[in-house]
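ugh ok so i messed up the first submission bc i forgot one of the chains. this is the corrected input, ALL of the components this time, i swear. 150 residues overall. if the numbers dont match what u have on ur side tell me asap before i send this to the collaborators (the ones from the other lab, u know who)
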Amino acid sequence: MKKLLSVSLAGVLSLGISMSANAVSQEDAIEYRQAVMEVIAWNFGQMGAVMKGKIRFDAQAFAKRAGNVAFLSQLSLEGFIFGSYEGETDARQAIERNWDHFKAKMAQFQEESAKLAEVAKTAKTRREVGLQFLKTAKTCKGCHRRYKRR
Ligand code: HEC
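and heres the new structure output, hopefully the right one now
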């Protein structure tokens, strides 16, 4: 019993140590935010294909995509941690220097994608979502132009 207790205590302790040692490396943060961006791009790209007439407009499918992007827009910011702008990343150092501006750009994206999700809920035609889709797309470009290499 005593031995069991000490073994499990050691287990708990080592778990705690390894967890704190791993408390988000720069590589993890880079992978995380890139993964979120990829998932955003998948969903956004599907809507883009609809806007270009490559995929037929399906109100339900479009609303689902728009909802996904609105949700995902909330996730990437926490991956832009301090000191993670070198190595396998296209994120520019400027993010760190202009953090408040970068956050504002992210907030714009969140706002416009939330509006897109809202409009998409009741839209019956592609035309009804067109303007808000473009507005949202502009927030991607508006941020990438300044804060993403390539
Ligand atoms: C507030 C800034 C910001 C907004 C808004 C934003 N992005 Fe990004 N995005 C970035 C940055 C910075 C990177 C580079 C991340 C890295 O390499 O660490 C990136 C990377 C990407 C990548 C490449 C991911 C990879 O695997 O390297 C894609 C694709 C992408 N974004 C798509 C989008 C789309 C689509 C939107 C809009 C629907 C969008 N982004 C909105 C800042 C933004």
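quick check: The radius of gyration is 20 Å. that seems consistent at least. The pocket of heme C is lined by residues 30, 33-34, 37-38, 40-41, 44, 89-91, 102, 105-106, 109, 139-140, 143-144, 147-148 (CB under 6 Å).
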